[in-house]
Design a protein that fits this description.
It is built from no helices and 13 strands. By secondary structure, it is mostly beta strands.
């Protein structure tokens, strides 16, 4: 582990790498993210085992679109590398909010929907993508409920993968 942390910032559509001790941090605003919505930009990001990065836009590509822009960087995004552009299509009404790398190299994608009401309703689904085949997503069961899931963490225990949810109230 390098001790570095990468973060996506929606307001500026940028990616920043934080170094240990938070010294010498580096940020970049890839031109491929320039047209991403300012409050629905780089919401989900994951570093693959081989050093590549996937970044997903929270917002869809257009008002009526169900496609969400996605980028695949061949290495650390702050090094100025040009990404491969693609799109993911989560279930209608759902937006990607986080990703985590599974031990077999596939990516777990947390998607969330929002319905205004009293109380507001958030529903989530987990999707699995294989970056080696294509950004094809397979739907898993709907988790549902009133939780506001904004992230997740995978914990390996006794060779099984367990999902621990990060809940924000």
């Amino acid at each position: 582990m390098s001790g570095r942390i990468w973060a996506g910032f929606e307001g500026s559509n940028s990616i920043e790498r934080f170094n240990p001790g938070f010294t010498g941090n580096v940020a970049v605003s890839p031109r491929e993210m320039a047209d991403w919505a300012s409050n629905s930009g780089p919401e989900a990001m994951v570093r693959l085992a081989d050093g590549r990065f996937i970044v997903l836009a929270e917002g869809p590509e257009g008002w009526q679109s169900t496609h969400h822009a996605a980028l695949l960087f061949d290495r650390d995004p702050v090094l100025g590398t040009r990404p491969v552009e693609f799109a993911i299509t989560p279930p209608a009404g759902y937006r990607p909010v986080d990703m985590a790398l599974l031990p077999d190299g596939r990516v777990l994608v947390l998607v969330r929907s929002f319905a205004l009401g009293l109380p507001p309703r958030f529903e989530v689904q987990l999707l699995v993508a294989d970056p080696e085949l294509a950004p094809v997503i397979a739907r898993s069961e709907q988790l549902g409920g009133f939780w506001h899931f904004v992230g997740m963490h995978l914990h390996l225990e006794y060779t099984h993968t367990r999902l621990a949810d990060a809940i924000q109230f």
